[in-house]
Automatic annotation (TrEMBL):
Signal peptide: none
InterPro entries: MORN, Morn5
Superkingdom of the organism of origin: Eukaryota
Pfam family, one: MORN
Organism of provenance: Pieris macdunnoughi
Name the record gives this protein: MORN repeat-containing protein 5
Keyword Metal-binding: no
Amino acid sequence: MRKFSEAHKEQCKTVSLDIPRVQRSVKQFPTGSQYEGTWDVLGMSGYGVYKFPNDVIYEGEFDDGLFHGEGELKYPSGEILRGKWKKGALIDKTLIFADGLEYDDIDWSYCRMPDRRFTIEHNNGLQPAGQSYMTPEQPSREVPQGYYDTGDGFYDPKTKVIYSVHDLTAIIRSPSVREQRWIIDNCRSNPIPKLGPRKDLYEEWVEPMLHLPNNSRQDSMPFMAPSKSTPSFGQDYDSVYEFGSCYWRKTSEGAWNKRFINFEPTVD
């Protein structure tokens, strides 16, 4: 074997397996897809743009006809899926919405209570009262009389369909009964209804306590003192205790209820 190797040293040298790539014109496939980019003898390879029949576009790296390397999928609605592929399999991804907001599948807080900010408010901060953003797109588009702004179009409660924002005679879709109720309750409309506080969006906070109140004994709450005020709770309570500007009340059943604040004390 050694003699054979020495006699054929020149023939046994490694040879580069890099396959040359060439640029070709747009290739149309029978499926309705098309590709424009570089090729090698095995197929699509290198960098190119692949368009699916549903107008989704992949732009990035290929190898042997498969997505391979870095690239991004662009959807007609504006979303972008940016990622890294390995032989056609997506191994790392980042989803970016049409308005530029980047999705985080680990700590996603957008549009979750108590954070209800638009993307533009995430990026630019909240505006002062009277100048708040009404929609994520600026400037906000004008809503026709009697319609509701659903984001993708204008909803007419009379015909119960959603029309194009560019043509009120072009129907986009027909929402379900459940969505129709949601649109009327939540979407911007013309005329604008009277606005006011929404109690369902309020959050109640209580003062932190070092010791939980005992249901039966007053001396279990050494940090509280009997109230010298006479706040009206709307019903009779056996005990009312004051803690700073906060009050705790206890009913005859022995249960402590949440605090009340900013009561006016009576004059002795």
